[in-house]
Amino acid sequence: MTINKKILLAKRPKGLPDKDTFKFVETEIIKPEKGEVLIRTLYVSVDPYMRGRMIDAPSYVPPYQLDDVLGGGALGEIVESKSDQFEQGDIVLGSFGWQSYYTAKQDEVRKVDKDIAPISTYLGILGMTGLTAYFGLLDIGKPKEGETVVISGAAGAVGSVVGQIAKIKGARVVGIAGTDEKNQYLKEELHFDEAINYKTSTNLQEDIAKACPNGVDVYFDNVGGEISDAVHTNLNKYARISVCGAISSYNLKEEDIGPRIQTTLIKKSVLMQGFTVGDFANRLAEGSEALAKWLQDGKLKYEETIIDGFDNIPDAFLDLFEGNNIGKLLVKVDK
Amino acid sequence: MTINKKILLAKRPKGLPDKDTFKFVETEIIKPEKGEVLIRTLYVSVDPYMRGRMIDAPSYVPPYQLDDVLGGGALGEIVESKSDQFEQGDIVLGSFGWQSYYTAKQDEVRKVDKDIAPISTYLGILGMTGLTAYFGLLDIGKPKEGETVVISGAAGAVGSVVGQIAKIKGARVVGIAGTDEKNQYLKEELHFDEAINYKTSTNLQEDIAKACPNGVDVYFDNVGGEISDAVHTNLNKYARISVCGAISSYNLKEEDIGPRIQTTLIKKSVLMQGFTVGDFANRLAEGSEALAKWLQDGKLKYEETIIDGFDNIPDAFLDLFEGNNIGKLLVKVDK
């Protein structure tokens, strides 16, 4: 009998999630019925937004329920098909999350093309990560050639793609990240024009000003908090802020307090817009095609950090908040 | 010899401006030369944004210099013309501000049409005030029929126009103001659907929720601060915030601190945009025509508070921060 390993939400975290947040259980797999497929999980994605779903508050995705499997992007191989749309061996993408097997209705998953790029990229640069970067930068940030784009969380899964797309569009690109190793990667591998280490900076506002002698036209914000406060003081007239994430606040136990933004927005006629990739649901094909083309043309690079072993998923997730990884963080599920 | 009375910036205020902020001086008038006109001031406008120009920091308009005349919207009558574009008796609009006479180059002022409406309206509903409401609401807020529009500073010069335009566009309109008298005016005279007194509310967030059973789609923000914090918690998915003013912060001696907005913007995919009417400089004719038409059709009402006497200009300006006035606040300059 094949056993399905699952990781459930055991307890809603206050502050940083810990071992008590998660519960490992084993259940029997459910045999697929007509129109269904049985999937063996190959990779699962761990993403900062999942922290938001662990609290019981309305958001753009519904909160996790207690004792629910922690859902999220995952890739698997079809081991048994009762659907005429899939064959055994097909690789499929879905939101089945942190479990080693999943019995899906055929319309819950979609087949991915193994020939374009390694399949793991469908959880990263060719998946929601890349699409988030694509739409957030191009539809909200709208960088023009020669403008300056600043990205926080720049070495992360989304930020590293944003910077490269901004370079493709002819912008000057400045990344903010938390280690010299990340910044070296941004400059040497991804050709960012400048990179700032916010952890070693003694005056971030000034360091941003130095790295952006013509001011900041577009700010792609993954982090919020004091880093963003410092960027906001350097905005140009008619700047655009694409608000993608606020990882600095996700594990706060108290309210996220800081300078109110209104006066800055008025003085500089700034646009600030929050978004999630779901806002562009009817244009995902456009984004996917552009990303795949750039990837195939060698214009986009990506880095993946792949952790081995199903049991390590919670630790991999917690690593996101340590800021240790470069690029996309994935867990490869053992056979 | 005719004497020109002027009010200068004597000292940059910290906190609320007071008598020491202003200095009254008298100079001789300057005789107009070829291409110039001599204007006797009839009305001057006092506006919250002028507080921002009293501090020495870059903004969308340059700061006032010490011992400069406090510039701003003003209407006057031409008493002597050396320009072939103007005749004695013409009424002109300019930015000559707090002085009883002004010698203008002919391209610094424009003639207004006395037949459309009382001339004072060119400093209010037919002037920058009305245009600010028009563009801020329609270009940023973009209210759709049946949507809910919330306005802070709703009984002020801009807010009262915003609400009426939102009604013309078929929205449900909820105003926030600081006295029952103002709210009575908003509901009875301007046909706002609801009006909330933030000073007597014991739970503003809840009162807004009650007044907006379908949530808030558009927030036109004149005030910032805690009132706006309370509105932000009631925003709908895809809400738009038109950030026009932050009067709650203009006289703060310390930094304006409150809940950071990023998480709200992300969760609801909210757009927040600061603006000034100058951003729409190439479309002012469109706005002026629409406002004049609505005014002539009886679809727009306006209230003016007119203070008499040049010497009362600073007090009238300070009244703006007391929140005592309804509609546009002007000073009629004595002959």
Mean of residue pLDDT values of chain A: 94
CATH class of the largest domain in chain A: Alpha Beta
CATH architecture of the largest domain in chain A: Alpha-Beta Complex
Q: Ends of chain A: how far apart?
A: 15 Å
Order of helices and strands of chain A: EEEHEEEEHEHEHEHEHEHEHEHEHE
Query: Number of folding domains of chain A?
Result: 2
Number of strands of chain A: 16
Give helix % range of chain A. 25-40%
User: What is the oligomeric state here?
Assistant: homodimer
Strand content of chain A: 25-35%
Our Rg estimate of chain A from Cα atoms comes to 20 Å
Spatial shape of chain A: globular
**Helical segment count of chain A:** 10
Regions with little confidence, pLDDT below 50 for 5+ residues of chain A: none
Class per helix and strand makeup of chain A = alpha/beta
Largest interface, per-chain counts? A-B, 38 and 38 residues
